[in-house]
Structures are given as structure tokens and as C-alpha cells.
Design a protein that fits this description.
Length: 346
């Protein structure tokens, strides 16, 4: 599996050139000239940067009065990462515009990627407007991290057009996009979403069933619940816990998922032996002992105090840039590793 996508050729000027070829299938981007990004926060900015670097003109819709400054500053921050991916980054802001009226913003676009607040009623309202104003051919995707498309599309006249395209933060960098069809999403919409994200250089995964939180975030939630429990109980500090993760399961899961890992953990007998040998003990002694913490005042105070102490030296922007550099280095290393395709496909 290639984690760093082949850059499309010269997209530095109009963006049109970027869509014409590319070994990664970026020819499919030919039909995506213009995108509407609804909600220009953390995720919206990241998508906008990637879309622009892939040669797609972007219009941002967000009611914040200071949205222009925020997005332009955000774009500056992620530009080094886009350049490190080999994407053209000259004058990205030249193909970026802002439109405060939602219906006007989506008129004439080929893709709408919605990244508004995670509130079901608000998303429902936003999408009712979008479906009436966006062209019939436009791909309609929401970045929601937990709300099923079925719920968001409840009030839509054409629910078959909406699909979840859930990125992993930051979307300009992390390969995964979970494509989650709602009960009424059409197969055509799913196919279109898969082709689009693939052409963008992402690694889309279509889920076979709709489930709140989807897959990657459910996994994160399960692990984070235990992280909060361990820190709240004083077993380790946040820094110690992060060190344990990056030196063990973090590294491990970058090259093989949990099932492949435990298949190897079972020795020559593979996963069947692992389940007999260690899995049953995990079920009886470990699973019932896992924590069920709450974000009560005292737990939150512990978490915030430690975060200040641990991460207080750098701004979030500096820490994000550091993360981006390391993430790209890791992706490059995996891409350069013989046979890493079969391993990381686990
Ligand atoms: N942050 C993450 O790690 C992450 C990861 C994947 C998906 N998501 C999803 O992406 C979406 C956005 O999350 P975020 O972290 O970027 O949030 P954010 O708070 O950073 O950004 C949300 C933006 O939406 C804008 N907004 C508010 N009302 C709006 C409206 N009516 N129309 C258009 N824009 C409006 C806000 O002004 C804000 O700029 C959410 O659905 C979230 O679940 C977040």
C-alpha cells in the first residue's frame, strides 16, 4: 500500500493541469473543478488545503466573521506538509474564495464537503439547503465523525445523494477516509465517493454497515476510555502513557492491525492459538477490569493540569507542525519498506 500519493503534475497555476494524469488515478479528478467546503474550522481548512493542492478551486462557507483570516492562516500552517507530500503549493490562496450564503456557495460546485459543528439538527438544516442549491451531479459528503448519514439525511428530499466521508485528522495527511452510506445512500454515490477520495490520494474504506462513530473513532474511543482511566487512577501520567503507546502499540499498528498482530502473537498456530492461549484470559480477567471513567470535575482537572505540564512548551500550531513532519517521515519509511504493502494491508 502506498501511503504518500503520487503527486499530480503541475497544478501551480490554474489547477486544471493537476487533474489530467497521475499514476494514482488522479485522472478521475478531471470532473472535480470546484469544491464547496462548508465549515472552515480544523477539518475544513485541512480539506481545503488538500483540494487546492490537488488543483480543485475551493469556496468556503462559514458564518464566523473572521473566517477569512483564520482559513488563510491555517492554510499557511499546513502548506509545508502539503509541499512535503510533493504537492504543488504555489499561490493556493489564489484559487480560494469565501461565500457567506450557503446556497450561493454550493451553486456550480462538483463536490460539497461539509465540516460544520457536530450537531445533528444543524447538519440536517445545512443539508436541506445544500441539496436544493447544489448541481445534480455534485458529490455530497459530510465529514461527521459520529452522526450516521441516515440521521442527517432524514429531512432531505434526495437522501440517496448524501454519504459520510469521514477523514482522520488531519485530512490533508492521514490516508484513511471512512465512507459510510446511510440506509438510503445509493450505490452510485458510494462509488463516486470512493473514486473521488482515491483520486485525491486517500485510502477510502467503505463500511459494510452504518454504526455510530464508525470504526476508527470507535477504536480510538475504546482505547481513550482506558487511557483516561489509567491517568485518573494515577497508574501513569499522560506523558508516560503517551510514551508507552508510541513505543509499543503505536509502532506496531502502523505496520499491522490488531488482528494481524495477534495472529503473529499466536506463533505458528496463528489467531486460533492466540484466542485459546491468551484471548480467553483476556476475556475473563482483562475485559471486566477495564475502566469506565467519566469526565467529572476532578478527572477533567487532572487531565488538564497534566496536559498543561506536558504540552505547555509549544503552541498547538507548533506541535501540529512537528506531528506532520514525523507523520510524513513515517509514511515515507513505510512506503520505502519492501513488502510493507502486504503488511500494512492487514
Ligand atoms: N476535529 C477532528 O479531529 C475531526 C476529525 C474528523 C471529522 N471531524 C468532523 O468534522 C466536522 C468539523 O469538525 P472541526 O473539528 O473542524 O470543528 P471546528 O469547530 O474546528 O469547525 C467547525 C466550523 O463550522 C463553522 N460553522 C458553524 N455553524 C456553521 C454553519 N451553519 N454553516 C457552516 N459552518 C458553520 C464554525 O464557525 C467552525 O469554523 C465535525 O462534523 C466533526 O465531527 C472532526
Amino acid at each position: 500500500m502506498t501511503l504518500i500519493p503520487e503527486p499530480a503534475p503541475d497544478a501551480t497555476t490554474s489547477g486544471q493541469d493537476a487533474t489530467t494524469s497521475g499514476r494514482d488515478g488522479s485522472a478521475a479528478l478531471d470532473s472535480y473543478r470546484r469544491a464547496a467546503i462548508i465549515g472552515g474550522g480544523v477539518i475544513g481548512i485541512s480539506w481545503a488545503g488538500l483540494f487546492l493542492a490537488r488543483g480543485i478551486d475551493v469556496v468556503i462557507n462559514d458564518p464566523r466573521p473572521d473566517i477569512e483570516g483564520l482559513v488563510l492562516a491555517g492554510l499557511d500552517e499546513i502548506t509545508p506538509a502539503l509541499a512535503a507530500l510533493g504537492l504543488p503549493t504555489e499561490n493556493l490562496a489564489g484559487r480560494l474564495s469565501f461565500e457567506a450564503d450557503l446556497a450561493t456557495a454550493v451553486a456550480g460546485v462538483d463536490i460539497v464537503q461539509e465540516n460544520g459543528p457536530e450537531r445533528p439538527e444543524l447538519k440536517q438544516r445545512i443539508w436541506q439547503t445544500i441539496e436544493q442549491a447544489a448541481p445534480a451531479h455534485a458529490l455530497l459528503a459530510t465529514s461527521t465523525s459520529s452522526i450516521p448519514a441516515t440521521a442527517i439525511a432524514q429531512a432531505m428530499r434526495q437522501p440517496e445523494r448524501l454519504v459520510v466521508g469521514h477523514p482522520f485528522n488531519p485530512p490533508h495527511l492521514v490516508p484513511l477516509v471512512e465512507i459510510v452510506p446511510g440506509e438510503k445512500t445509493s450505490e452510485d454515490t458510494v462509488r463516486q465517493a470512493k473514486a473521488f477520495y482515491t483520486a485525491l490520494g486517500k485510502k477510502p474504506q467503505v463500511l459494510r454497515k452504518e454504526i455510530p462513530g464508525f470504526v476508527a473513532n470507535r477504536l480510538q474511543s475504546a482505547l481513550f476510555r482506558e487511557c483516561v482511566h489509567l491517568v485518573a487512577q494515577g497508574v501513569v501520567t499522560e506523558q508516560e502513557l503517551d510514551d508507552i503507546v508510541t513505543a509499543s502499540i503505536g509502532m506496531r499498528w502502523a505496520v499491522g492491525g490488531p488482528f494481524r498482530t495477534f495472529h503473529l502473537g499466536g506463533g505458528p498456530g496463528g489467531l486460533p492459538h492466540f484466542i485459546e492461549h491468551l484471548g480467553r484470559a483476556m476475556e475473563t480477567s482483562m475485559w471486566p477490569a477495564l475502566g469506565t471513567p467519566a469526565f467529572d470535575d476532578s478527572t477533567v482537572a487532572v487531565l488538564i493540569d497534566q496536559a498543561r505540564e506536558t504540552f505547555g512548551d509549544g503552541t498547538v500550531e507548533e506541535l501540529a507542525a512537528e506531528r506532520d513532519r514525523a507523520q510524513i517521515a513515517l509514511m515515507r519509511a513505510l512506503d520505502a519498506t519492501p513488502d510493507s504493502g502486504s503488511v500494512s494491508r492487514a
